[in-house]
Amino acid sequence: MMKFFDSLPPMDHLRSEKMSFVQLIIPVESAHRSITYLGELGMLQFKDLNDDKSPFQRTFVNQVKRCGEMARKLRFFSDQISKACIMSAGRPAMQPDISLEELEVRLAEHEAELLEMNMNSDKLQQAYNELLEFKLVLLKAGSFLVSSQNHAVPAERELDENIYSKEKDQESLSFLDQETPPEMSNKAGLRFISGIICKSKALIFERMLFRTTRGNMFFNQAPAGEHVMDLASGEMVEKIVFVVFFSGEQAKTKILKICEAFGANYYPVPEDTSKQRQMTREVSSRLSELEATLDAGIRHRNNALGSIASHLWKWTIMVRKEKAVYDTLNMLNFDVTKKCLVGEGWCPVFAKPQIQDALQRATIDSNSQVGIIFHVMDAIESPPTYFGTNRFTHAFQEIIDAYGIARYQEANPAVYSVITFPFLFAVMFGDWGHGICLLLGSFLLIVREKKLCSQKLGSFMEMAFGGRYVLLLMALFSIYCGLIYNEFFSVPFHIFGESAYKCRDTSCSDAHTAGLVKYRDPYPFGVDPRWRGSRSELPFLNSLKMKMSILLGVSQMNLGIILSYFDAKFHGNTLDVRYQFIPQMIFLNSLFGYLSLLILIKWCTGSQADLYHVMIYMFLDPTGDLGENQLFWGQKPLQILLLLLAIVAVPWMLFPKPFILRKLNMERFQGRTYGILVTSEMDLDHEPDSARQHHDDFNFSEVFVHQMIHSIEFVLGAVSNTASYLRLWALSLAHSELSTVFYEKILLLAWGYDNPIIRMAGFAVFAFATAFILLMMETLSAFLHALRLHWVEFMSKFYHGDGYKFRPFSFASLADEED
Known about the structure:
By secondary structure, this protein is α+β, with helices and mostly antiparallel strands. The chain has helices at residues 2-7, 31-41, 61-83, 100-148, 202-212, 249-262, 273-329, 352-365, 394-403, 414-429, 432-447, 449-453, 459-466, 468-485, 537-570, 574-605, 611-620, 635-654, 656-670, 700-724, 727-751, 756-794; strands at residues 19-27, 45-47, 190-198, 217-229, 236-247, 265-267, 333-334, 340-348, 373-377, 501-502, 517-518. The protein is built from 22 helices and eleven strands. Strands 1, 2, 7, 8 and 9 form a five-stranded antiparallel beta sheet that branches. It is found in: Membrane. It comes from Cocos nucifera (Coconut palm).
């Protein structure tokens, strides 16, 4: 068997790409161009040689700051374009190239221009809001003053300049600044202050005024009639106009302070009706002028933003590239002559010629007299893990990486998960009607792939689009399993011929009591449609799906253990082969492999043996008589042998390996042998071409405890993991029964009425339940259970998942990067 495994050809995607640890010695004059070319290639992961320095102590910190400042300006432009609702040009056509220095100057000019336009626009908007509020106060407060003229002292207006708490800018063209306040009356009498305040603050404002003046005031208010922009939030708010009548200088001071605290604006309103009308006309005229000025300013600003928007994408990518180049240069060190930069990093072995070609081009294009030195070095640390993926395999690799990144050159479970993951999902979801719905959804995502790639999607849609090929295989396998289960929205069909069963008489009255009679060969493919609705439907389907779940589970766990053999063989670890792989295979198959064999024999022979009884008494009474539960000759001695092998396999896993490691370690340090000690448990990585091996201090107690935990975990896991695969049966049964309930209790019940409205309502409820419960919730449930079966039951047999991902310096990811 081992020779057969060894003779198998290697699989390209089973192992990560071979990596090399390389060193670059780059002359200063060609450093920037060479790093740029390497970023365009995207096949070299640099090691930070200055990780002991802070970002502000590095060589190219000033260049990084410049790029950061330009990125800030570009974000400012992007925010302004978004607020102005200007459509960005996206990725424009060819434009003339500019240098970084020219771009820096241009961005500074654009920012200064935009800031000035924004400042002028804010001043004009503030003046416009003041005039609009003044107009509203003039219109509303006049009625209050007319009604109070019989009780007020003659012509006394609160137009003193002390009423205004804030200074008015001379360039704001405010009407209030052009007014000359009349003389303040010294006579004691009734005075008033008019103004405007947010409606939400009006009630509290009135209460505060009442309490402060101890009731010696009269407050009148009315809705402003128009929404006014709040300069602080930029939103349109509802306001009310108020007039406060009071008496005395002290009361005036208190009222003005309260107005300032509540953000109320107060304006002078003459008591004379003719002057009110004249002032209203002047304010309206000024408002129309300001409105025209504001519109012209907005048009000019939008034109400037539109010009920036056409170049924004190119400028953003350019700045991001420059910043990435200088960030990478900061990871390099100067040599002793200060004329060259030294860098180290990882690259795939297949990419070394491409990297050398890029470095040679950089030397030529920068007119450097000295070439770039590129050579391979040995490394102490383990290399990064890099799997080459495409659109189809990327989602499956992401599912595995979510559990943990594979060790360098460790077996990749994604190769097998491409088939096993959607298949186990389909075992739980099997219904070819629901599978067709999933297939249509996945086809829609695949057909619109190019369009959706360029759009920003929501979180749920982005997840569905990223797994579109996973959905495709899940749908295809669901159709396949649905045909085996013979379920189309829970309804069976005679697709592959006539049923093998018939009723005992023409009336078929005893079909659910006495049962059916078999009169021809078995149904050619899948479950016979006559099982649906029969007396023994549930016992038959439960038995079928439960046994099928055990067979699938034992097969996948065996695959995981076999992959552990390939891993140990690949890394030259004979201890793991002899003292882990062999006893694990013996233990698992002595118990649950034997159970799978009994299931197959029972299916093939039609025996009525009770497999529960056989497995239980295999432990309780190994030498007892099997009686009617005997399936084949020699079953009892075989059971005793398998039980003894399972018992022997446990100490086989536990004791030999730690003691052999201890012996080899002692011999190595006593000088009797210089052999390399390799074990997966000591986390030693071996790659002769690129990485040196390293040895930690050997601790026998630690190794023994680790091996004991591993052995106990496997023994207990063999039982619990096999039982865990019964979720395939449970979820398949739940999906089938739920689909049957929706079909019989909603659709058929509604179709029993002659009323078309009831039928349409029943169909709508059935469609809603199918779409949201069976196609969404059940899909998610089956997906998560299939995920658990792979992460825990399958991958725990061989997968460590404690590596780190290969993250090369590349410009390709800058387009999707968000600041």
